[in-house]
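Entry:
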Amino acid sequence: MAVLRGKAPIIREKRLSAIGAYYGTVEALLREFYDGNLKQRIRTFSQETNSDILYALQAINSIENVVIIIHGPRGCGIIQNHYNNRNSLATQWAVTNIDEEDSILGSDVKLRKTVKSIYTENQPEIIFILTTSVVAINNDDVASVAQDLTDELGIPIVPIYTDGFKSKIGITGYDTAIHSIVKHLLPNRAEKENFINVISLNENKEGIEELKRLLEALGVEANVFPGFSKYQDLAKAGSAAFNLVVKKGEGDYFAKVLKEVYQTPEIEANAPVGVKATGKWLAQIGKQLGREQQAKELIEKESQHAVKALERYKVDRIKVYLSCEPEYANSLIGLLEELNAEVVGIKVPYLDITLLDQMEKLYRKNPELSLLIGEGQPYEQINILRKSGAEVYVGNDQAVGSIALEGIPVLDIRDINILGYKGSISFAEKFYRLVKYRGFSENFNAAPKPPVYQTGWLKKNTNWYIKQEVK
């Protein structure tokens, strides 16, 4: 298992030519990729950007009956409060509270004490140890502590080696968590069984339930992980007949590792967002599994109901700015266009070579479409919004709060289901209500308040702080 030999995978910038800073057109970026002249850019000022540590936490936070230990200073644990609020305080966690003395003399004693204490209190099935930048700089021997305590306590103690600085692409944290999950929780060999893995890293529970409903209607048994899974779901992943990734960019590393270790093929399918895309998703799965007729009948039945429902939620022509993952972009644009909306610009958190087909589809739709790449960056997004004439913002990143403060109507799609047929209807209904009933945003906009960003910045070029990296 050569792919699992190291403590963590190679960062995405080196492995997948990932970029996290760009502003321009889709056409110009694709030309850079295909000419072999991709410019790695950096931001000289950045706002509201997540590190790999946060992504790794998200990957493991909804696994049942686990404990998370954040191995670092006390302040590193604050983000876990955010995830606990989202998962109803279900996940037990602790922070080792490394201080200056620990950073000099080593913190293995404190780590051992924390693991034993939290195990005694909670009796979990798995304990994850998430390392932080202080531990990475000091090069503490976390592996030895984890192995010793695995033998002593009789449960897996899984180290996840995040550091917060090696990669500028935060989603690398998913890869790091996945690497440790496969390395420490899955058996070396597995007998094949008649089910498929559905790899989901940040979909909400409603979305997962919708995908499971559709797969069950197709006669397919699904093992969904790591999101909202149990230890046994993870442990049997190597026995699956196929892997199905909900979002290619997020779960691609998981699928590739499972293929290398267990020779599990992947079902190539688009993200099921929107009526047409969900139908295509089901058709692709049906073709791969020899259930084409069942898929056809299911698509006809579900599509008829969904299309009829969407008719109720069409709006008058309106301009929308969209922020979402690259895999969702084309399907969400299609769904918004079905509702009579025009997408005037798009932002994605990152881009790499696994997602070029998504950019090609965007190019065929509109080669001059404004494209911003980067996590967060509300100051850049508001700059674009003011210049583009966008009337509504649809997005799933942490910038939604800052944008709402500008008096722009916001549809935050982080905690609503947009997957499958039910997700399409739910999204359409919420979008319709946002457009039709703008009282809150209008009143907020009319209220006297200091501007979030000064006029001087709003007049500047959006890529003012995006510079080509010099090595």
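Residues 292-311 form the longest helix (20 residues).
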